[in-house]
Amino acid sequence: MRIIEPGILGYRESLELQRSIHREVREGRGEETLILLRHPPVITLGRSAKRENILVSEEIIKKLGVEIYEVERGGDVTFHGPGQWVGYPIIDLRKRGKDIHLYLRNLEEVIIKVLANFGLAGKRIPGLTGVWVGEKKIASIGVAVRGWVTYHGFSFCIKPEKEYFSLINPCGLGKEMTSLEEELGKKIDMEKVKEVIKEEFLNIFQS
Predict the structure, then answer these.
(1) Residues forming a β-bridge with 154
(2) Do 124 and 108 touch, CB atoms closer than 8 A?
(3) Other C-beta atoms within 10 Å of 23: how many?
(4) What is the CB neighbour count within 10 angstroms for residue 45?
(5) What is the maximal distance between C-alpha atoms in the chain?
(6) Percentage of the residues of the chain whose pLDDT score is greater than 90
(7) What is residue 171's predicted lDDT score, i.e. its pLDDT?
(8) Residue-wise burial string across 118-142, b where 16 or more C-beta atoms lie within 10 A, e elsewhere
(9) Backbone phi, psi, residue 124, to 5°
(10) CA nearest 79: which of 45, 53, 43?
């Protein structure tokens, strides 16, 4: 399992990187990969997104320096920013039982295990994809699968970015977003969290 860490990367560039690796893995020329990065502010709309879940005009969004992309992942509207770690696993499910449901649960399990490292109890909500702390969502998941190879992935909120989340109805659920720092009540080193994410991801997907 290869891990690529490009730091802060634009959304368009991350899509190109994902699609390139996805094609290699699908054709049997590449190895399974986790791309772990941060994005400049961007709003993305998944396949089931409703435009009304963007709560302000696109003109306002663009004035704030936020980009908007329509993409092929599952799910509704979400925000990515530099206060999150975003993971894009390119995983060959042909070698893993072709079980998308299990794959999603494993992504959730990665985040739940990371939260436990920081003394927090993450949980699932039946019928929904993602991870919650209490009634607040801390990680969103939206994936795409083509040829039984995955791309897109998860976003895990580390630092508060409420001014951006207020622009949307996250995932169309009407749920409040939270972050690791808010739940712990203190500042957290982003790099420390990244190392824990890598460890727990490999524990689940490389075992």
Answers:
(1) 87, 141
(2) yes
(3) 16
(4) 20
(5) 47
(6) 73
(7) 58
(8) eeeebebeeeebbbbbeeebbbbbb
(9) -95, 155
(10) 43
DSSP 147: T
Measured CA distances, 70 to 11, 77, 156, 168, 188 (Å)? 11, 9, 20, 14, 31
Structure tokens at 110: 């990665």
Q: Which two tokens stand for residue 184?
A: 């712990």
Q: How far apart are CA 47 and CA 72, in angstroms?
A: 6
Catalytic residue among 25, 91, 145, 171: 171
- What's the DSSP call for residue 111? H
**Mean pLDDT of all residues in the chain?**
93
Overall residue count recorded for the chain in this entry? 207
Interval 54-102: pLDDT, tens: 888 888 888 888 988 888 887 778 899 999 999 999 999 999 999 999 9
**Annotation marks residue 171 as catalytic:** yes
* Domains present along the chain, CATH in parentheses: 2-205 (3.30.930.10)
